[in-house]
Design goal:
Elements: E1 2-3, E2 38-39, H1 44-55, E3 60-61, E4 67-68, E5 72-78, H2 82-93, E6 101-106, H3 112-120, E7 129-134, H4 139-148, E8 154-159, E9 162-164, H5 168-178, E10 186-191, H6 201-206, E11 233-235, E12 242-246, H7 266-275, E13 280-290, H8 300-317, H9 324-345, H10 348-370
Parallel strand pairs: 5-6, 5-8, 6-7, 10-13
Antiparallel strand pairs: 1-2, 3-4, 8-12, 9-13, 10-12, 11-13
Helix pairs in contact: 1-5, 2-3, 8-10, 9-10
């Protein structure tokens, strides 16, 4: 049985097909200071994963004694990025274990992406199916469409501007299949081209950043997993460019379709809500490159404003460690700190951050007055 380090006591979630069996805090961490996963029986999960990496595609013993792989679906949400979709799907087709179903959920204004998919279908691996589905814009809506048109036990999400290592899918499924207790809800891949983590004392003091990686902060901010771990590590959230879930999770937690095209952080919102019930892991064996295509992305100042109002709405929901006090400390502190630094250094970029912070504060106030916040403010 697997024992996630962040839970104590046993429980049953009451969700068909998804169980929590005897989850409790492990008596001794695998590595002090890291939230890595241990097993009852030293090295059992690691041994399973190593043997599977040496012996081909992992199998799951089903009732009756027959063995077959977990059925899985991969969903790529896209809008006006046909070239990126073509490159991404090329790496999906080259997987050592191609997903059973691959669905491109497209909200583009033309048929360019449809033509890309149609051109790939004749040469697509015979063990898999590839199809194109239309959707209204907004990533949350597209994810929900993808969930509804698929049936696999595991659902993978990757961004259209990612390139998957050939062993990505096999590594993710191997972790799910090694978890015979079905305790793990989600698995993320490790993004190999992340920016350098430049932590400052002031940012940490204001709750804008943390030396702890892969966590969600009370201010609503979150930190990436910058340091590649040796083994799967437990995290608070998964990046939308590389996240996979057991389908049964969606019986309880779904992407919030109210978060339209004018919000961001939908991956954080979804995965952190899942994290309130079940563990999430990132495995270093599932490696992925995120190229972050310029098409459809906001300017730095626009992003700062959208990030602030999206973060405020997540904090209002009160999930987990979120705190309205911590949010406002981080916002007013950021405004004061970057205004001071901009005045001293005459830096245009710092002036832009200060200006965007002030715009974000005004946008939140305007949204509250007009009732345009997605999540109703608590009484």
């Amino acid at each position: 049985m697997l024992y996630p380090l962040s839970y104590e006591g046993g429980a049953t979630d009451g969700i068909s097909g998804f169980r929590r069996h005897g989850l409790r805090r492990a008596t001794a961490p695998c590595r002090p200071g890291r939230r890595e996963w241990c097993c009852a029986g030293e090295g059992r999960l690691r041994a399973k994963m190593q043997s599977r990496s040496q012996g081909g595609a992992p199998k799951v013993e089903q009732a009756g004694g027959s063995a077959h792989a977990i059925a899985d679906d991969l969903i790529v949400c896209t809008r006006n990025r046909p070239s990126e979709v073509r490159d991404c799907l090329a790496t999906v087709a080259a997987q050592t274990r191609v997903p059973v179903n691959v669905v491109v959920v497209d909200s583009s204004g033309d048929d360019a992406t449809l033509r890309v998919v149609e051109a790939l279908v004749p040469t697509w691996p015979a063990s898999s199916s590839l199809r194109h589905v239309r959707s209204e814009p907004a990533t949350t809506r597209q994810r929900n469409v993808g969930i509804d048109v698929t049936r696999g036990v595991v659902v993978h999400f990757v961004d259209d501007d990612t390139l998957l290592d050939p062993g990505y899918i096999e590594a993710v499924l191997g972790l799910f299949e090694a978890d015979r207790t079905e305790a793990i809800a989600g698995v993320g891949g490790f993004v190999t081209n992340q920016p350098e983590h430049r932590l400052t004392f002031v940012d940490e003091l204001l709750g804008l950043d943390s030396r702890r990686e892969g966590v969600v902060l009370p201010s609503g901010r979150n930190t990436r997993l910058y340091t590649e771990p040796a083994w799967p590590v437990e995290v608070d959230w998964l990046a939308g460019c590389a996240m996979s879930f057991r389908r049964a999770v969606f019986d309880t937690v779904r992407p919030d379709s109210r978060r339209g095209t004018n919000r961001n952080g939908e991956d954080l919102d979804l995965s952190y809500r899942v994290r309130q019930h079940w563990p999430l892991l990132i495995t270093p064996r599932a490696r992925i490159l995120h190229l972050e295509a310029a098409e459809g992305r906001r300017t730095a100042e626009e992003l700062a404003v959208v990030e602030m109002i999206s973060r405020y709405e997540r904090v209002l929901a009160g999930t987990g460690v979120y705190s309205r006090r911590a949010f406002w400390i981080s916002v007013w502190g950021q405004l004061a700190w970057f205004t001071f630094k901009a005045a001293v250094t005459l830096s245009r970029s710092r002036f832009a951050i200060a200006r965007a912070t002030l715009r974000g504060i005004r946008a939140i106030r305007a949204a509250r007055r007009s009732g345009l916040l997605i999540l109703a403010e608590p009484a």
